[in-house]
Amino acid sequence: MEEQGKGFFKVYDGQELEKQELMSAYIGKNVDYYLHKWHKAAAPEKALSWNWAAFIFGAFWVGYRQMYAYLALLVGMMLAADLAYIYVLGWEPDMRITIGISLLMGVFGNALYYRHIRRKLAQLNEEGIEPEEIHRRAAADGGPNWRGILATCLLLFLYNFILGYLTSL
């Protein structure tokens, strides 16, 4: 195995280099941050590492990074937790749920994003298209996207509407 590159960008074969280039293309903005976090972990899809953006912005960070399945899951968990507070415990929802979810997002955000990217790149590879086209589509489809913020706003509006309706019954 011949070592190529140095320091953070050290890789041992062409396949690993191609994987890193595809991930870089998909990530877009802040690529160095994510690659550094994942490089430090033996299993990045399971690693616990801190992400301030995921902690502070939570669902908005998930939407911005186009992780729509995780966004739906996150909002569903928020709704379920609020309903459990109200109907099971008989309490009014408070900041404990929000703080708990923020902490979970801060700790698991990088791992979730890694899983998301690996799944998206695997889908592109399964299409049987040329490597250049995979790279082009990864760059075009990935990265941060402000439409995800809009999707988050709409989903949180729906969450508040449902919660308001169910609590008014």
Automatic annotation (TrEMBL):
Keywords: Membrane, Transmembrane, Transmembrane helix. This is DUF2628 domain-containing protein. The chain crosses the membrane at residues 47-64, 71-89, 95-114, 146-166. The lineage of its organism: Bacteria, Bacillati, Bacillota, Clostridia, Eubacteriales. InterPro entries: DUF2628 (IPR024399). It comes from Desulfitobacterium chlororespirans DSM 11544. Signal peptide: none annotated. Pfam families: DUF2628.
